[in-house]
Amino acid sequence: MCNAGSPCSAVITGAGAYVPEKVMTNEEWSKLVDTNDEWITTRTGIKTRYFAPEGVYTSHLAINAGRQAIEDAGVNPEDIDLLIVATICPDRPLPSTACFVQHGLGLTNAACFDLVAACSGFVYALDTAKQYILAGSAKRVLVIGAETMSRIIDWQDRSSCVLFGDGAGAVVVERVDEPGKGILSSKIGANGGLSELLRIETGGTAEPLTHDNLDERRQYVKMEGNVVFKHAVRNMSEIATKAVEAAGLTLEDIDWLVPHQANTRIIDAVGRQLGIDASKVVVNIQKFGNTTAASIPLALKEAVTDGRIKKGDNVLIVAFGAGLTWGSSVFRWEK
Ligand code: COA
């Protein structure tokens, strides 16, 4: 246990990211649905996204990102004792995608499970990893957000298909026997009463797949984008403020905001509400689109690799997604 007698922290010690090679531009989408580069760019900020080619799926993306995070942490696969894969695009309904990733990475000493919280998945998984570590139940957790959204979007629905991309991001979270390091706070929340706003209707036990519902394209993501947008801005700003307070910091202490990449207009509005200057906000949605649970670790890895996020920086992450779910965490970058 991590208590007064044995104080400890949960610290991110490695990060990894992976996107498949196949780029999909706005121009390509405009040949498939009634849209154009101008609409997509001004409404969302997205220019390109990457899609997994045939035969490549969520566990493959997760394994690539996870391997990089393990190498970056300088540990061996056998040293990982828990793997959490946040995804809404499992390889199969059974078993968990985490089991394929555990095997693929050779995490022979790790228990593993999938976590479903849509775009908030990474923040939920990071919070879970922290709780395992602080409870003394795990020493080294691999947290991965991985999605193959190209397989679950409706390629005929212009209001949602242009928004999403495929990818994976990962971090290693380790127990450090010193208090006040690494993850300083994490807050998660949900409102299941708004589950209809962003949903897949069929393919579960409520409505098993039939020829009819497949013909009606009910196996794909459906979204009330406009309503989701408003909830996103409000909930992300509120939960981020709570996470900063819980960390014992103020918003002025935050060096970097790494928000979920759903829409540049959402990101700008959240930054404005929090009073965080745009120069401190990590944005890469123009390249990758909304990669759901992968978006925050993808952006985090990019900002660490290009030297923006440095040792000692206070990083605020915040996400929002289907459920509705939301979450935020503050951590000090210790590498
Ligand atoms: N190309 C061209 N026109 C499009 C289009 C596309 N790809 N998609 C929708 N439109 C049209 C709509 O049909 C509508 O036309 P109408 O006014 O003639 O009915 C018009 O554009 C405006 O639609 P609206 O939904 O009001 O646009 P918006 O400003 O809300 O932007 C989203 C739409 C989806 C980009 C925006 O609401 C959004 O990003 N929401 C958050 C969604 C999200 O990220 N969810 C993931 C979980 S975080």
What's the short version?
The protein is of the alpha/beta class.
Key traits:
single chain, 335 residues, alpha/beta, Peroxisomal Thiolase, Chain A, domain 1, five-stranded mixed beta sheet, four-stranded mixed beta sheet, binds coenzyme A
Number of helices: 11
**Shape call:** globular
Cα distance spanning the termini:
25 Å
What CATH architecture label of the largest domain applies? 3-Layer(aba) Sandwich
CATH top level class name of the largest domain: Alpha Beta
Strand arrangement, major sheet: 1-7-6-4-5
Kindly report the name of the CATH homologous superfamily of the largest domain. Answer: Thiolase/Chalcone synthase
Low-confidence spans: pLDDT under 50, at least 5 residues? none
Strand content: 15-25%
Question: Structural class, from secondary structure content?
Answer: alpha/beta
CATH topology of the largest domain: Peroxisomal Thiolase, Chain A, domain 1
| Count of discrete domains | 2
Which sheet architecture does the biggest sheet show? 5 strands, mixed
Percentage of residues assigned to helices: 25-40%
Order of helices and strands: EEHHEHEHEHEHEEEHEHEHHHEE
Write out the distinct hetero groups bound to the structure: coenzyme A
**Average pLDDT taken over every residue:** 97
Rounded to the nearest angstrom, the radius of gyration is 19 Å
| DSSP strand tally | 13
